[in-house]
Write a structure and sequence with these properties.
The chain has helices spanning about 5-15, 35-40, 140-155; strands at about 20, 40-45, 55-60, 75-80, 85, 95-100, 115-120, 125-130. The radius of gyration is 15 Å and the shape is globular. The chain is built from 3 helices and 8 strands, in the order αβαβββββββα. By secondary structure, the chain is an alpha+beta fold.
């Protein structure tokens, strides 16, 4: 985005707007610190030097009290491309993590978030790393997750999910 577009986006969030980032939303605007903090982290690479970028991995829901995770199993496996992140904003609330022991060439160790949310500068920001594969947009687990993120980000008021598990 150019400077005028960045200012308009900042004003939108500051007025209570919501943002939903999917997959490569973390792989842009590296010179815009406001966006990086809102995003929650920047893309720092992915597996693929010696293996396929797309791998099966084991996920754990770390916060089941959010609309994006309330319908998900506590742990599950799915195939996607798992980003490693840099400049990670520790103020975000992590929703889902991936176990790096379940796939090859991760670089974040025991703390590898894959989805998170937070209130930011007057608005709401939600991000999920899923979205590299076509299956993401037809599989029930990621679609429930993305839909819940959209509901939360677009609600404009605090949302408290009821734990159904």
């Amino acid at each position: 985005l150019d400077a005028q577009q960045q200012t308009a986006f900042e004003h939108y969030i500051q007025a209570g707007g919501g943002f939903v980032g999917i997959h490569a939303a973390s792989d842009t605007e590296y010179d815009w610190a406001w966006y990086g903090k809102m995003m929650g982290g920047y893309f720092d690479g992915h597996p693929g030097k010696h293996v396929s970028n797309v791998q099966m991995g084991k996920f754990t829901v770390t916060d089941a009290n959010h609309p994006s995770t309330e319908k998900l199993p506590t742990s599950f496996e799915r195939k996607d491309e798992f980003y490693n992140f840099k400049q990670f904003n520790k103020d975000v609330k992590v929703l889902i993590s991936v176990d790096e022991k379940s796939y090859q060439e991760g670089t974040m160790g025991d703390f590898h978030p894959m989805a998170w949310y937070h209130l930011y500068d007057g608005g709401r920001a939600f991000y999920t790393n899923w979205g590299h594969t076509h299956e993401t947009f037809s599989d029930e687990i990621p679609m429930n997750h993305i839909w819940g993120g959209l509901l939360w980000a677009g609600s404009g008021k605090p949302v408290k999910a009821k734990k159904t598990k």
